From TrEMBL, chain B:
Superkingdom to which the source organism belongs: Bacteria
Domain annotation Transketolase-like pyrimidine-binding: ranges: 5-180
Identification of the protein by name: Alpha-ketoacid dehydrogenase subunit beta
UniProt cross-references to PANTHER family, sorted A to Z: PYRUVATE DEHYDROGENASE E1 COMPONENT BETA SUBUNIT (PTHR43257), PYRUVATE DEHYDROGENASE E1 COMPONENT SUBUNIT BETA (PTHR43257:SF2)
Organism: Streptomyces prasinosporus
Amino acid sequence: MADPAALLRDMVRIRCVEEELADLYRDEQEMRTPVHFSVGQEAAAVGVCAALREDDLVYTGHRSHAAYLAKGGDLPAMVAELYGKETGCARGRGGSVHLTDRAAGFAGSAAILGEMISVATGAAWALRRQGSRQVVVTFFGDGAAEEGVFHESLNFAAVHRAPVVYVCENNAYSISSPIAARQPADGSVTARARAFGITAERVDGNDVAAVHAAARRAVAACRAGQGPAFLELDTYRWREHVGPGHDTGVDRPREEVESWLERCPVRRAADALRPGAPDVEERLAAWDEEFRDETRLAVAAAKAAPFPAVDRLTDGAYGSPVHAS
Amino acid sequence: MGRTLTYWQAIAEATVQCMEADPAVVVVGQNVDDAKGSYGTTRAAYERFGAARVVDTPNSENAVAGICIGAADQGLRPLVVHTRADFMFLAMDALINLGSKWRYMYGDQGGVPVVMRGVVGRGWGQGATHSQSLHSVFGHFPGLYVAAPASPADAKGLLISALRADTPVVLMENRSLYATEGEVPEEPYTVPFGKGRVARPGADVTVVAASLMVHEALRAAELLAGQGVDVEVVDVRSVRPLDEDVICSSAARTGRVVIADTSWARYGFSAEVAAVIAEHVPHALRAPVRRVTPPDCPAPVSWPLEEAFHPGAQKIADACLELVGGDRSAVPALAGVDAGFIGPY
């Protein structure tokens, strides 16, 4: 089991990074690429990724920052990517929705809903065929679970026992559309996964300890060749779908947003820790300072870094040519 | 001067007018019912007709395309909205393998008049999978009408035509056009598919374009007018059917052709226009045709790369000058049409 304080610390880090970046994004207008913040959903990424080995792999949808950081993705490279710099994790070509850090096992994120559900399935299939013990995790939202590719991928994974953990971060909204308008009231994403014979758990996604415990079970099953596994994590995004703003009172009822703010995953983990760690507030304050400083350093480095050279615009569209033999 | 509307307002008005005239018209798509209302284009329809006829859907583009084909087969006229055209790749199986072929392969016993609107992103680092212009892709398939209106008036007239047609239609709308204004008649009217227009007459060189590139071509033309180069701008309006006459007669008049497009050159709209000219008026050309398109790579995010990637007035002006043997150094630099745009979106 991961140390509860370490889980809390990782969540605080992601919270600080994203809040700093959101403010800068809004105020500077220099990160010129659409961003989807995970503020409020940190427990999902942290709880799951803490159950992984370094060589396990993560593929995500568009809301990717939290999983990237939780899996150990390089922060300065992520920030530089948002600023469109050559030092970015995708060399400024991909932006926030196409993050990647292969060395950290964050294979990639993608903008079109549900795509990475199938890609992660294929990665897991390939690893199993090659005798690897690595496990693949894919994060996606409740919206992506409506795509055909979700059902097709789960079916394939179940047949081939692919070692993939499907993590549905159910934040109850697809942009502004509530889940009740999109999915049957008496169904659940978990029930659909179970229909394929996949072991599935529905967990409070703002309870990092519960998420982590469930993720450990899922990952262990996959590692033992009993995959795939499925987790549905109920959570809530604090900000609007895309960008640094808030849609409270516009797309989502104020009382609903506020009820979720009270269920803050960071605050809950801190409260849980307090009986054994009376200094938790001091620690939180210190982490807050540490991670905001870390983010500011990454921002400064990103700003100082060069943009890609315009004469390299088309480089990288193709690999090496195949010569006649 | 008549009444002016923005591009998005023209679409919103056409939608409401078609829904008033034809109870079979329904608007279908993700978040079409929310406060933003597909950049405003579906908001008026939702306020007027409510959720019964402006239907928010699950994120299921493939099934929704098929569902709308089935609904069209049984008498509805679905207007499907994709606020990012790139998601239409998920709808392509149903739209191409069934929708476009339905009438023909079932022996011409009726069509499935689904209308799909796709919004093309541009700028603000929307990158590889949120800024693709798909009119060339959809234009490849017989059985579809494909249009890419440049003006508010055409956006309205072509949408009304689409919702009265008995053929499936794809309408590509560049997001950068949404705030542009133009004269738009209040009453419902149609702009026929396959009928282009001369957006600006000129004698020296023809620029053939659609959608956003019509505006870029007009800006280039204005710039070059100051240099004594008289540019004609042809707005094809529809990609399929394609108005060969307006293209060829202009090419025959000027003898020099630049084709400007937001989709890639290979196998694209620009290739098709060049082929039409080569087939019909090859001897009219006094110089080889020039294409102004994105380079052969996906759209980058980093803004200096993005600026270099997207074709615009400057590149069109350069291509025109090259054809007439003009002096580039005499021409002042142009800002992109997106200059001053503040994200995010």
